[in-house]
Amino acid sequence: MTAIIDYDAGNIRSVEKAMQHLKEPVKITRDPGEILAADRVILPGVGAFGDAMEKIRQYGLEGVIRQVVGKGTPFLGICLGLQLLFEESEESPGAKGLGILKGRIRKIPAGEGLKIPHMGWNTLELQGDGRLFRGIPDETFVYFVHSYYLEAEDEAIVKASTRYGVRIHASVEQGNVFACQFHPEKSSAAGLAMLRNFVEI
């Protein structure tokens, strides 16, 4: 069973629907016992960094997430869920993220012809041997909706990047922790294939 962590963020139901499409048993929950017992855990979300961390702490989920990661359960952060895994974000100065991975979340700089938030399809430049991307060709299009982007401290954890004015670390992997800035659940057949790869880890 896959647990989807419920912390009042947007876009959780679309992840649930994608997993159901894959015939994967799934449950949206904030119950610590259910999350800790799950075979894999997803932290999705759309929203503001500081507000999301406040909710995670309010619901007592920070320690649960650390336990899940610590015991080796496959864990996937999506969009805001990726950002929360890192230390801090320019969106919410002073708000501390989970700090499970090292890096900063920065505002996408304004540029000629660039609309912010970045909404739409961009190609991925795959690098390394990311397990989410098994069988996925380089330059695959995926769907993004974000105004802030990851700058990972360790380039070795970056498994895919894209360009939108700046180079954006679009997906990372470290041990049992995976994260995507884009939305695999909204990225057509390729995104479903990535979720299938996660389920099979």
UniProtKB/TrEMBL annotation:
<comment type="function">
    <text>IGPS catalyzes the conversion of PRFAR and glutamine to IGP, AICAR and glutamate. The HisH subunit catalyzes the hydrolysis of glutamine to glutamate and ammonia as part of the synthesis of IGP and AICAR. The resulting ammonia molecule is channeled to the active site of HisF.</text>
</comment>
<dbReference type="GO" id="GO:0000105">
    <property type="term" value="P:L-histidine biosynthetic process"/>
</dbReference>
<dbReference type="GO" id="GO:0004359">
    <property type="term" value="F:glutaminase activity"/>
</dbReference>
<dbReference type="InterPro" id="IPR029062">
    <property type="entry name" value="Class_I_gatase-like"/>
</dbReference>
<feature type="active site" description="Nucleophile">
    <location>
        <position position="79"/>
    </location>
</feature>
<dbReference type="GO" id="GO:0016829">
    <property type="term" value="F:lyase activity"/>
</dbReference>
<feature type="active site">
    <location>
        <position position="183"/>
    </location>
</feature>
<keyword id="KW-0963">Cytoplasm</keyword>
<keyword id="KW-0456">Lyase</keyword>
<keyword id="KW-0028">Amino-acid biosynthesis</keyword>
<keyword id="KW-0368">Histidine biosynthesis</keyword>
<feature type="domain" description="Glutamine amidotransferase">
    <location>
        <begin position="4"/>
        <end position="199"/>
    </location>
</feature>
<dbReference type="InterPro" id="IPR017926">
    <property type="entry name" value="GATASE"/>
</dbReference>
<feature type="active site">
    <location>
        <position position="185"/>
    </location>
</feature>
<dbReference type="InterPro" id="IPR010139">
    <property type="entry name" value="Imidazole-glycPsynth_HisH"/>
</dbReference>
<protein>
    <recommendedName>
        <fullName>Imidazole glycerol phosphate synthase subunit HisH</fullName>
        <ecNumber>4.3.2.10</ecNumber>
        <ecNumber>3.5.1.2</ecNumber>
    </recommendedName>
</protein>
<dbReference type="GO" id="GO:0005737">
    <property type="term" value="C:cytoplasm"/>
</dbReference>
<dbReference type="GO" id="GO:0000107">
    <property type="term" value="F:imidazoleglycerol-phosphate synthase activity"/>
</dbReference>
<comment type="subunit">
    <text>Heterodimer of HisH and HisF.</text>
</comment>
<dbReference type="Pfam" id="PF00117">
    <property type="entry name" value="GATase"/>
</dbReference>
<keyword id="KW-0315">Glutamine amidotransferase</keyword>
<keyword id="KW-0378">Hydrolase</keyword>
<comment type="pathway">
    <text>Amino-acid biosynthesis; L-histidine biosynthesis; L-histidine from 5-phospho-alpha-D-ribose 1-diphosphate: step 5/9.</text>
</comment>
